[in-house]
Amino acid sequence: MNAGGSKRDIVKEKLSRFGALGVLLILAGLALAGPYGVLSWGENVTRLEQRQHRIAELEAERAELQNLVAKLDPSRVDPDLATELVRRNLNVAHPDEYVLELEPTH
């Protein structure tokens, strides 16, 4: 009975070692090829750079809009901007005028 019990203990020990080895192999696989693993590091860096570029674009657009809002303050409206907006939105121009729309530079 003692010999059978020790054989059973050996089998349990081997199974626990194989289980631990399996868990370690899974963790190593995830560390290499998982969503946050070494192989996806370059892709994550590229995505981060793209998002930082987009944030910079949005911040520039926000600053431009804040400037426009400041110029449209009811207590002190910029007359040139008001004229430009009225002409653009209402399509109002004198017959002898030419309208040239310039692309904004960033």
If you had to describe this structure to a student in words, what would you say it looks like?
- It is a single chain.
- With 106 residues, the chain is mainly α.
- It has one domain.
- It is 71% helix and 0% strand.
- It is built from three helices and no strands.
- It has helices at residues 2-33, 41-71, 79-90.
- The termini are far apart.
- The model has no long low-confidence stretch (mean pLDDT 86).
Q: Approximately how much helix is present in the residues?
A: over 70%
Domain count: 1
Number of beta-strand segments: 0
Radius of gyration: 34 Å
Percent of residues in beta strands? under 5%
Structural class: mainly alpha
Spans where pLDDT lies below 50 across 5 or more residues: none
Number of helices: 3
Distance between the termini: 86 Å
Order of helices and strands: HHH
Features:
rod-shaped; 0% strand; single chain; 106 residues; mainly alpha; 71% helix
Mind sketching the topology for me?
Elements: H1 2-33, H2 41-71, H3 79-90
